[in-house]
Amino acid sequence: MKLICIGRNYTAHIEELQNERPEEPLLFIKPDSAILPREQDFYIPEFSDDVHYEAELLVRICKVGKHIDPRFAPTYYDAFSVGIDFTARDLQSRLKEKGLPWEKAKGFDGAAVIGEWVPKEQFAGREHLNFVLEKNGEQVQRGDTSLMLWKIDELIAYISTFFTLKKGDIIFTGTPEGVGRVAPNDYLVGYLEGKPLFSLNVKG
Predict the structure, then answer these.
(1) Among positive and negative, which fits the CA dihedral 155, 172, 85, 16?
(2) What is the pLDDT of residue 39?
(3) pTM, rounded to two decimals
(4) Nearest to 81, CA basis, from 112, 113, 57, 61
(5) Which of 27, 68, 132, 176 could make a disulfide contact with 10, Cβ separation 3.0–4.6 Å?
C-alpha cells in the first residue's frame, strides 16, 4: 500500500501559503508507516514546533491500473473518506529552502489520518463532494471537489502515468485553504457530506 498525495490542488490554499501555482499536479508519497492507527491520539513529534493540519478528501483504489484513461478512472476506485495530511511546517520550510525532499516533514509516523471509508455508490456524484474539518468545535476548513484544479479522475490518470496503482492504495487529493497549527489538547473532527468520519485528540 502507498499513500499518494497531491499538493497545491486548491487555488485559495496556494495563495494562503504564497506558493507558486503548478502547471501539473504536484505529487509526493507518504509511507504506510505514516498512517495513524484508528482510535489513537496524534502526538506532536519532538522535532517540530509547528505541525499543521491539512484536511483532504481521500480516494481508495480498488484494482491495479497503469496509464489509466480518465474516462475509465471511476472503475479504479470504490470509496471516499476524509483524512489529514499532518505537516511539520517548520521542517518543511527548511527543507524547501535547501531544495531538499519533503518526506521528513510529511511522512513521519502518525502524519496520515484516514477516516472511515464510505462506498462511492452512496454519493450522487463526485463533482461536488463537500468535506469539513472542525477544531475544538469550530469549522477551520471546508473543501469541495468542484474547486480542485485537477479533479479526481484527472488525478488518477496522471498518477498512473508514473506509478502503477494497486488495490488498497490511497490518494490524498489536496487540501483547501484554512490550514493551521495544532496544539496539545486540540480535538479534530472530519466530515464528508455532513457525516463524521474521524475524530482525534492532539497530544504534546
Answers:
(1) positive
(2) 87
(3) 0.94
(4) 57
(5) 176
